[in-house]
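So, could you explain this one?
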Amino acid sequence: MTNIDLPIGVFDSGFGGLTVLRSLVEQLPNEDFIYLGDTARAPYGPRSIAEVRRFALEGLDHLHQRGVKALVIACNSASSAVLRDARERYDVPITEVVLPAASRAVAATRNGRVGVIATQSTVNSRSYEDAFAIAPDITLTPQACPRFVEFVEAGITGGDELLGVAEEYLEPIKKAHVDTLILGCTHYPLLQGMIGYVLGTGVTLVSSAETCAQSTYSQLTQAGLLHHEPREATRTFLTTGDARDFQGIGRRLLGGFVTDATTVVLDPGNDTLNRR
């Protein structure tokens, strides 16, 4: 039986998953968390699905071996590539960012036209098309927005250059007359103001970070693994890249939320692809 006092492991390709972690901390304030960002190999968006799968399993293996009571795949590209493998591989609850966001969008849309903006890898995986198989009456418009990640990690959330890029990326979304848009990359909630400005108030924005946190709460409650009483909780930050760079970018994105980080080395010789 899983120990309720173990931390929750959160894996991301880099920094975007910090928005998921922030939502998790807000909704599960009594839980300990270990966050691992694979910043040495980020971004995952331009990579092949096979490569993303291999990298993500290495990261999830590392967290699982440290001892966690649940795993959160806080990256749309990784969720798209590895979810089925992860649920077969690990003996703890697994949550991710794709299906919860799709379910929320189905409930939110009024005209049945939903958009999703994501990395190229997520769009290529067609994971959101698969998720919307539960709602065949929905018309889905996917759009890759790769440069959004660059702006976020540079700390840029406004200005003429970003506005021009946003208008170009979001034009197909506007032409499709969607009334609900999934922010299908965990960097994108940090651009919610700009995206909302371009699309207008008639479009409901669905954050995969918030819906993932709600799904995690539900799963831990059902499994009897949630701390309900106040306790002193901890957050541990790990990175495969430079720890000082991680702290610097993390603090630029989310202020004092990110504390000291430690560099770790993942084990690629772990028979990652074949072990079950």
